[in-house]
Amino acid sequence: VLTNATKTSRAMPHVVSSVNEAYQWVRAQQARGKTVGLVPTMGALHAGHLSLVDRSIRDCDFTVVSIFVNPKQFNQPADYSVYPRTLESDVRQLAERSVDLVFAPSVEEMYPAGFTTHVDVEGVTDRWEGASRPGHFRGVTTVVLKLFQIVPADRAYFGRKDFQQALAIERMAADLNLPVEIVVCPLVRDHDGLALSSRNVHLSSDERRSALVLSRSLRLAREIFSTGERDPIRLRDAMLRLLADEPTVQLEYLAIADPTTLAELKRIENGAVVLIAARLGSTRLIDNEVLGNNDE
Ligand code: PAF
Q1: CA distance 54 to 59
Q2: Which residues contact 185 (CB under 8 A, 6 or more apart)?
Q3: What is the pLDDT of residues 200-222, one digit of tens each?
Q4: What's this model's pTM, rounded to 2 decimal places?
Q5: Site to substitute for ligand 1 among 42, 69, 72, 151, most atoms within 8 A of C-beta
């Protein structure tokens, strides 16, 4: 709940929870010939989110950030209930960057009684996160399409950290002719290499130390690839040996995949993506690394 002081402070973005208000605000800017960028988030903002905000501010006349912990994309009720919710401090961080509008709806506003329509992107969502978290991508693409309708932005910004999510959203936008440009921005790491995630707050200091093996294993993959190794089995084995150093890290999957289909590769090509998911206690983390560069 935002205090009155938060709502009325001049530096604060306009915070709305109503679908209609958000839509009218965006349309009013566009009617004046202004461009609008949307950064969809579930809040608990960190430097990864803020890099998307910065990019939108650079590209667009106005920036809207949506903050909505979307129940439909959580396949575990416990994960949904402990997901961090920090609206006041999120809005303060967005104020520092002069974000124009925050759309922070309730669950009832997004999914009123009688809601039954969902968006399913097939193919690219079948493997990895899709297999580990049944229903997750259906929830993501459903809410993202709704957000695009409510905030009909010119551009929308997503992080490469959720590699498969970005592909699913790009696929949906192309398949459904959505009039929005999807901009996918680089993954952001903490100073120690851990990929930034709102879930990192759940890690104990020991778990956090152990979790660093994920980014170390991806760095190793990049190094091995740069020596000319193109056999995915050998690359994977080297990563698995390193990951075995941290027995508390329970690997869910490790894939060396084609960056557009996410099918596993028989020979590693330049631009291949290494995808990894693991559990540390009750926290689930994902990370990825694209191998090589685009001019090989
Ligand atoms: O990446 C996220 O934070 C979420 O999946 C998104 C895109 C905001 C949809 O709820």
Answers
A1: 9
A2: 51, 52, 55, 157, 158, 159, 160
A3: 999 999 999 999 999 999 999 99
A4: 0.95
A5: 42
